[in-house]
Amino acid sequence: MFGTSYWGIRAVARRTMNPFSGGRSTATGDGEGGFDQLTTFEPAHIPEPGSFLEGHDVLEGDDHVAFHEVTQELFEERGVYDATFGYNLARLNLDRRHPDAGYRYAVDADDPTVLRAEFSPTTEFCPQADALVKGSFRAWNGLSDRHAYELVRVRVRSTHHQSEHLNETLERLESQYRESGEVPTESAGSGPGAARQEGDETTVHSPF
């Protein structure tokens, strides 16, 4: 269900222009200028799975690529952008300058309808981490009809200096979603401007 065969017959998703992208294609130039191709799996250029994925079925190869392709589409539609680099957050996985940053995924060992996603920021003091992971959670779960999972659980890698607080917030969002069936929308972090704004206003304080 979660391998190449599922994704090969997946209906082409309806695309909606993201007002933060300025009409740019986030796929343009991949494979050139320091970026890997979206359609290739380069394990040396993405983070190692962390503690949140330990003991679960980590996506590798075509399975990782297939879900990350969908991720790029959903992030573009919902405007989940890295304000520092000015690109769709999914591109961080392709950026060879930051081989230890980005997302890794694993199918939950106890429930194959649940996907775990662990975000590794570029630095331990990344001021955008709060907005980016909340935006990711809302994109994946708010558009859950576009992938094979009923729930995508999101956590920040423990290397971030405020990972404990950030992950507690993500757990609350997850609990609200499980209880109500609706993705919480308050303090939404989408688009580069919103990500920067939320990073400034949140109780998670940046050293910058």
UniProtKB/TrEMBL annotation:
Compositional bias (Basic and acidic residues): 161-181, 197-208
Cited Pfam families: DUF7998
Protein's name in the database: DUF7998 domain-containing protein
Protein source organism: Natrinema longum
Region (Disordered): 160-208
Span of domain DUF7998: 35-183
Coiled coil spans: none
InterPro entries in alphabetical order: DUF7998
